[in-house]
Amino acid sequence: MPQKKDKDVAENSSKRKSFSVKKGIKSRERVRDRGEVFTELREINNILDLTADAHRNYKDQRILEPACGNGNFLVVILERRLADIKKAIRKKDQDDIEFAILTALSTMYGVDIMPDNVKECHERLMAVIGKFYKERIPAKNRRPDFLNAVKEILRTNIQLGDMLNGKEEISFIEYTVPRDYYFVRNEYRLIDLELGINSSKKRIKPTHYLKIGGGNAD
Ligand SMILES: C[S@@+](CC[C@H](N)C(=O)[O-])C[C@H]1O[C@@H](n2cnc3c(N)ncnc32)[C@H](O)[C@@H]1O
Questions:
Q1: Residue 207: inside a domain, yes or no?
Q2: Contact yes or no for 106/157 (Cβ under 8 A)
Q3: Residues facing residue 152 across a β-bridge
Q4: Mutation test of ligand 1: which of 22, 26, 75, 114 has the most ligand atoms closer than 8 Å to its C-beta?
Q5: pLDDT, tens digit, 9 for 90 and up, residues 96-106
Q6: Could you give the number of structural domains in the chain?
């Protein structure tokens, strides 16, 4: 049963600009060539409600949308996760809010074959975070390094790729949390993960969240 807060999230989602999507499609050619039909918000909410709260567990539950389009599912999942963060963390705990947002985003992944879809997905997820951040953090306290970290996670996690014929070129960054406010990053190739091979290709040592995007924080 959807909760009231989910309905609020759904209403917010429906008010957002949906880029060049009209009646669920961008063009007939794209439907023919790529099977590109975008899921309606009502269906997305119904499907997510069926998965109980698994997708909301932003610390441990990693979500991959393998043909993410311009992010219809990922946007709603992120909004639901942020709604939970809003309830759990007080406004004045800025570090905790920022770290929770980044953690929630870092466990979400998307791949799409169309560059415009990937770009729109980045923009939509950034807009959701930007709105939430402005509501929670006063202008004088907002940190560019936080927004750079958001951009970096979007870059690594929402990527251009061919999930059918280009799997060899797709890698995922796993962000884990060795201690509060720090991320470790490990890079895995999709084909290795599918074979059950868990050896990481590249490991980046614990990094403070404000440095993920190249910031200078301690
Ligand atoms: C049916 S749409 C679904 C989009 C989105 N998941 C939604 O529900 O609104 C399918 C998407 O798959 C993408 N796609 C098609 N072939 C693909 C492939 N081989 N690898 C990755 N994405 C692909 C298309 O660009 C399109 O965005």
A1: no
A2: yes
A3: none
A4: 114
A5: 999 999 999 99
A6: 1
